[in-house]
């Protein structure tokens, strides 16, 4: 079920920062109380392969997100302790030492379940034991959410496990949404900051298409 246009779930999740502090973090409140946009990206597992390349790419672009009044938050279903161990592992050993944004530790899967991003192929009920058996890795896909200053989701995307994200595309989407907020114009295909946008009218699209 698509969540774009809806409010992000409003509850706390365990999180870890680079200092080794475990704390509660509410993504919705981070946006609303701070008057900032939030980029929340989920990845499957700590100590894996594509994941550290993405996390470091978001870290490298952190200044660009901050310049756009945007908070970056990473997330997986690993524990806070495993997050901290990875944060203390060097790049040479496949770690994410030096990453400064918080990492959610959704170990009870309350948030990822509500978002519908867990790899669950099927579920079966064992009548003899009363247990529910899950077929699938039960970790998250590479899901990304952009949330505005009112806690509304304005972008969501989900990649399969092997497919790394393009960080620049999220910067472009934030620029486009901010342009819509500030100018009241809509952003056509391949729009980037500094390019022409258009009015959401018949005349507006005719004028844009004729000029491009």
Q: Summarize the main sheet.
A: 7 strands, mixed
> How do the helices and strands follow one another from N- to C-terminus?
EEHEHHEHEHEEEEHH
Q: Which percent range fits the helix content?
A: 25-40%
Total number of helices: 7
**What is the CA-CA span between the terminal residues?**
35 Å
The value of Rg in angstroms is 19 Å
What is the topological layout?
Elements (H helix, E strand, L loop, with lengths): L12 E4 L5 E4 L1 H8 L2 E6 L7 H11 L1 H6 L2 E7 L3 H8 L15 E3 L4 H6 L6 E5 L4 E5 L6 E6 L5 E7 L7 H17 L18 H10 L1
Parallel strand pairs: 3-4, 4-5
Antiparallel strand pairs: 1-2, 1-5, 3-8, 6-7, 8-9
Describe this structure in words.
By secondary structure, the chain is an alpha+beta fold. The mean pLDDT is 96. The protein is built from seven helices and nine strands; from the N terminus they run E-E-H-E-H-H-E-H-E-H-E-E-E-E-H-H. The strands form two sheets. A seven-stranded mixed beta sheet has the order 2-1-5-4-3-8-9, sandwiched between helices. The protein has a two-stranded antiparallel sheet with strand order 6-7. A hairpin with a 5-residue loop joins strand 8 and strand 9.
């Amino acid at each position: 079920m698509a969540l774009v246009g809806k409010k992000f779930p409003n509850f706390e999740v365990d999180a870890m920062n680079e200092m080794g502090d475990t704390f509660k973090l509410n993504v919705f409140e981070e946006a609303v109380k701070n008057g900032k946009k939030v980029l929340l990206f989920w990845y499957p597992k700590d100590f894996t392969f594509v994941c550290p390349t993405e996390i470091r790419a978001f870290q490298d672009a952190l200044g660009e997100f901050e310049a756009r009044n945007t908070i970056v938050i990473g997330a997986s279903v690993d524990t806070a302790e495993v997050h901290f161990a990875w944060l203390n592992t060097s790049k040479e050993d496949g770690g994410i030492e030096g990453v400064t944004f918080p990492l959610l530790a959704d170990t009870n899967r309350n948030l990822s379940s509500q978002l519908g991003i867990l790899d669950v192929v099927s579920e079966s009920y064992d009548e003899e034991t009363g247990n529910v058996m899950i077929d699938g890795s039960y970790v998250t896909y590479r899901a990304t959410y952009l949330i505005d200053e009112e806690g509304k989701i304005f972008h969501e995307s989900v990649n399969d496990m092997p497919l790394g994200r393009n960080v620049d595309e999220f910067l472009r989407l934030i620029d486009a949404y901010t342009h819509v907020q500030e100018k009241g114009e809509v952003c056509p295909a391949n729009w980037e900051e500094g390019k022409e946008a258009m009015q959401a009218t018949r005349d507006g699209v005719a004028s844009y298409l004729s000029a491009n």
